[in-house]
């Protein structure tokens, strides 16, 4: 038989299996199935078809266990496992498709145990050994939430000498990777030098941080014992992979504690235990009403949300007809705000944390229904139970932006393989920086010695580019080193050179939207085509709007296999929905009656069940009542529950049950209450499990449907985003796998955001920033470098590496400030700073005697109790100064008389309290324009409504210090911090 004919027959056979026409119930047929799969070169296409076919998946699940001998494993099983070892397969469905196949191979453990036995007995050939080792690395990399634990077996593999003594480098390398992954997963807290260790404080405290639920439990919030985290110096004392594992562990714990510190504060304010702005949304007397998990036509599915009605808290809509409610809800998005985070409470006991899913149709119904998304299986079960047991459960919104933390924390938990570890984690002072494999030597050689020369031809830019010595050095370092630290620009030139002279995808990440848009505009200006760039996030400038994700199109159409997967998952989701619809309705109507309790007792407390069961007489006949009628099944239970005895049935009951009938009435009622609660808990757990199963199905469906976004990112050379967008699109960015990551404003980005932005495929990291200016913003002052306790959460990766002695370059010449201004920063911070010649010839400001003027006064500042400035050394309150606000208003008027429009002015202040006051004072005659970061802070504090209209007044920009980079102006007015 010719190879072509056999190939065609195998393809036909595979098609029959995929469509359910051919059953695979014996070993010969399973061999043919494996051969048919291996007959295909396009691994992704065949894997998609397999996943979309329930019959094929069942054939694989069973067939892999038909024969588990070493011979069959070498000839067939290992080859199938190797077929999965394709980077493109790993990207399918955001990694969930490969994950599903790995779990089919692993569970049940019959095949896995045979693989391990054959490996230890040296009965696997080289290819099968490679397949087992690759499978082990993938299983070790699975999220801890899946509950897969093969650490003991993985340790057995690396303990075998024959793996590391193999003549094949590919086997030895996989052995080293398994060893590294094991160390990353097991050594994070093993070497703590203090007596305090992780684990045991409450129900969410574990030695392995990957087991920690990101949102806290009620026990955790109420726990007063200090959580486990370590100082930066203690982490630095660790060696090798222990330092890497410990560092990632500590970044997770510190960042999560920063989230929890804000949550604790907000919760205490909401409870009235602490002063501050109370929650704007608080509903009481909740009742479980409904659930939602799809569109009405079931074409689109979403994670399940619970609908609750309330006795109070939604009075603003009271008396409105439905149409008026709908209009009100559309016009007032801040009322029952979408994605607001809050907690379900019972007598101030935290039941669970939840997020509002704003459904206008549900809210407009009568009575209004608020949809809540409860995270975590245990929390969901508890919420379902309490909403059934009690009628005084409340929901209280807190202000902590948990959605900004969750993606980063989740990514830290899931990541075990980090790139550039020698530079980012293990660098020792004095070591030379590693040269990048991506270094474009033709550009580098052309730049050397070109100080002060036009390098337009070298970089092929559309504009003339002239660099001084320090700028050229910084550009060379950024192109040459695997990891480079540059104190200042030019990031756009680096991107241009790496775009033109490498084939790698480039991720550009900035702290602010303004910096990102400025960077992307620079890329367009120097000649990079807009079709090569995509911008993540909703904000943009007119020039960068064309780059936004929503403006991009994908030429590739979905394959039929992809549609088959989608349709199969939709069918599964519909079946899951039908199942838990029945369970939900049954749970809503569930009451702990006698028969339900008896059914529960039969399995949980059989002695009580026997005590309440109608006995038979000695002849096997059923006992009847005095009237001759059969005694009802719940008769004895009702007798016992009402404090009575079994009457004429006493002598027929088993002896072991007599003590039950002697219990006091109080004890009986306590028992009934505990059984009722246990019965409801059992049903709540069953419902919660069904919801969790649906959500997992929906997650797989969303991953497949989300391939459009991933296809767009894969098709672009440059991806631009802020740190916030990077967190929101973290899964998509991991699939895009940028080989080059460039960070602007690196000194203001938390290290955890950088660690989660880079992927195992990152080969080149460029960080541009200034560690001498403001650090990243955090909630908890106690974790900051300024506090001095050594935790240093707000020390960026950029600053940490500079302090560790990592080589960095600094730009020496500034091109913006006049000499009168630059001499201030030269004497305070940058002693080597030079002024460009063009800064010395600028005209003097009109109406002022100097370029820099200090104004002294004796009017003291007041406390601003409505908000705290978290940057201000842990201060509980912000500050304001009415006198200074009036002076600023007069200066603005005076400068207007000199011909300076308010669009040329910027007012700076270190305090949010003063910012709010300035906005109030200036808004009487001007339209104060807030930086988007300041606006967020004021909205969060309740000092500014998001719906505030923009009036047709003259605009003037006001900002807190550190966020003014978003503005360019001719005159700056700044209130200095209080002198020390």
From TrEMBL:
InterPro entries: DNA2/NAM7-like (IPR045055), DNA2/NAM7-like_C (IPR041679), DNA2/NAM7_AAA_11 (IPR041677), P-loop_NTPase (IPR027417), SF1_C_Upf1 (IPR047187). Residues 467-780 form the DNA2/NAM7 helicase helicase domain. Residues 793-928 form the DNA2/NAM7 helicase-like C-terminal domain. CDD domains: EEXXEc_NFX1 (cd17936), SF1_C_Upf1 (cd18808). GO terms for biological process: regulatory ncRNA-mediated heterochromatin formation. GO terms for cellular component: nuclear RNA-directed RNA polymerase complex. Gene3D superfamilies: P-loop containing nucleotide triphosphate hydrolases. The keyword Nucleotide-binding applies. One of its GO terms (molecular function) is helicase activity. Keywords: ATP-binding, Helicase, Hydrolase, Nucleotide-binding. PANTHER family: DNA2/NAM7 HELICASE FAMILY (PTHR10887), NFX1-TYPE ZINC FINGER-CONTAINING PROTEIN 1 (PTHR10887:SF341). This is Uncharacterized protein. The lineage of its organism: Eukaryota, Fungi, Dikarya, Ascomycota, Pezizomycotina.
